[in-house]
Every structure is written in C-alpha cells, then in structure tokens.
Structure to design on (263 residues):
C-alpha cells in the first residue's frame, strides 16, 4: 500500500477509479484486444454521467487521431471539460510540445502519450520540464509474448523490442508523472487485470501506476488493489454498458477496507 507523507504523518492514498473513453470519429467505441470496435455512446454524455457517479478521473483517448482531426479533437476536449468537475486526461495523436499545449489549453488536466514517446523519448523529458510531471502520463500498451512483456505502439498494432519494465523505468526517469499500463492480453476479456505484471511494475516504480485491461467485475478491482500497489484501475465497457456502477464499486471497495473517495 502506497503511503504519502504530510507534515510528518503517513496516510494512505485513496485508490482511483477511472472510466476510459476510447474515441473514434467523435464516438465512444470499445473492442476486444484492440480489435472489433463497437460504438458505446456519446462521449460528452458518458463523461457527465461518470462524473455524477463518482469517478475520480476521466481518460479520453482518440485512438485514430490524425493531424486533420486536431481541430475536432480540441473542440471535443473543450466540450467534455465543460461538463465535468474531475481531472481529465487526454491522449491520441500527440507528437509535439505544441500538441500538448493545445490540449491543456482546451481543458485537459493531463495528457498521455504512447507511440510518440517510443519514437522520441526526449519529448517526455521536454514536456515534463515545460508543463510539469503532474501533467504527463505515459501510456504503455504491452503484450506478453512467450513470457516477455513487449511494448506495442500505434494502437497495439506495431510490436517493439522494448521491455515493459525497462521502458516504464526509463519513462519515470525522464519525468513522467504516471504510467498507464494496458495489458493487451487482458484487454476486453473481462477476466481480471494482469496481476503478476502489475505487481512487478508497481514495486519497481515510485510514480503512480494506472492498471488497464481486463476488468469484468467488482472482484477484479478488489483483487487489483489487494494484490498490487496499483494506484488506479481503469476500465471502459463495463462502465459504458452499465455492467458496473461506479458508486456501487467504490462502496464495495470501501467495505473491503480499500481506501477510496466516496461521494
């Protein structure tokens, strides 16, 4: 359990529940292992609902962002930010300091980069220096291939030779404020998070780790927070399709003795 120090007193940090809006062409979508996408609803309406249900933060990922859609993405970010009162992380198609600045000015509290960090690790260093580590979330999509967790880019379509654990450590050293780790093996399966990998990555890092991929039940979140030092659990379809209510989930976690913020 991670502890924080305030005026010489140690206290437990509350665990965060983060709904994720994967956006394609202005609509929220969800798939299984990054494939077979289906429409899950209007992102602005979903964002407002999650804020009301007690979500701690919101994550917005434009999974097919291109330079041509930059204006549309900015406008959608601005719309969502005006409908919620919780921290809001945005990612998708970010390639430069200017891209980050545009999204922060549009209303994002944090930005998340994935492929661009692999292509240009110095971008993380520069962004952390200019905007602060608290604004920088590095997303890592990784797949367990014959026992090795390898980083993938471009929405999980391009494998690299980078090790999940070595890459996460480098990103921390470069100034990332958080790591968002998605297990491609578990994504959309609803059979639980990648606990073994999460145990290892949360023990080796000192910055917060957001766990993504595999949530299918309240018990999966309980298992995540009881068996790893993950700081947050992120999920999509189980929230989009009302399979789990966020306030009910947090009450369940509270009854397990897991520190959460109750509305």
């Amino acid at each position: 359990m991670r502890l924080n120090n305030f005026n010489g007193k140690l206290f437990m940090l509350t665990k965060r529940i983060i709904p994720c809006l994967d956006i394609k062409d202005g609509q929220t979508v969800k798939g299984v292992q990054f494939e077979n996408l289906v429409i899950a609803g209007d992102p602005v309406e979903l964002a407002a609902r999650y804020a009301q249900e007690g979500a701690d933060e919101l994550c917005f990922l434009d999974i097919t962002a291109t330079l041509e859609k930059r204006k549309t993405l900015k406008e959608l970010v601005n719309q969502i930010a005006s409908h919620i009162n919780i921290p809001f992380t945005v990612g998708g198609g970010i390639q430069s300091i200017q891209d980050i600045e545009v999204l922060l000015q549009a209303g994002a509290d944090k930005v998340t980069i994935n492929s661009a960090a692999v292509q240009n690790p110095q971008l993380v260093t520069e962004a952390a220096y200019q905007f602060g580590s608290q604004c920088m979330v590095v997303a890592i999509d990784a797949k367990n291939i014959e026992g090795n967790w390898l980083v993938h880019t471009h929405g999980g379509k391009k494998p690299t030779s980078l090790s999940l654990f070595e890459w996460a450590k480098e990103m921390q050293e470069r100034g990332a404020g958080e790591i968002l780790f998605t297990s491609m093996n578990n994504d959309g399966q609803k059979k639980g998070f990648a606990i073994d990998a999460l145990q290892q990555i949360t023990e080796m890092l000192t910055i917060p780790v957001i766990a993504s991929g595999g949530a299918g039940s309240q018990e999966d979140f309980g298992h995540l927070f009881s068996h790893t030092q993950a700081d947050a659990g992120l999920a999509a379809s189980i929230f989009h399709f009302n399979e789990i209510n966020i306030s009910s989930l947090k009450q369940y976690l509270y009854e397990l003795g897991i520190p959460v913020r109750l509305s």
Summary: The domain at 16-255 is CATH 3.20.20.70 (TIM Barrel). The two ends are 22 Å apart (CA to CA).
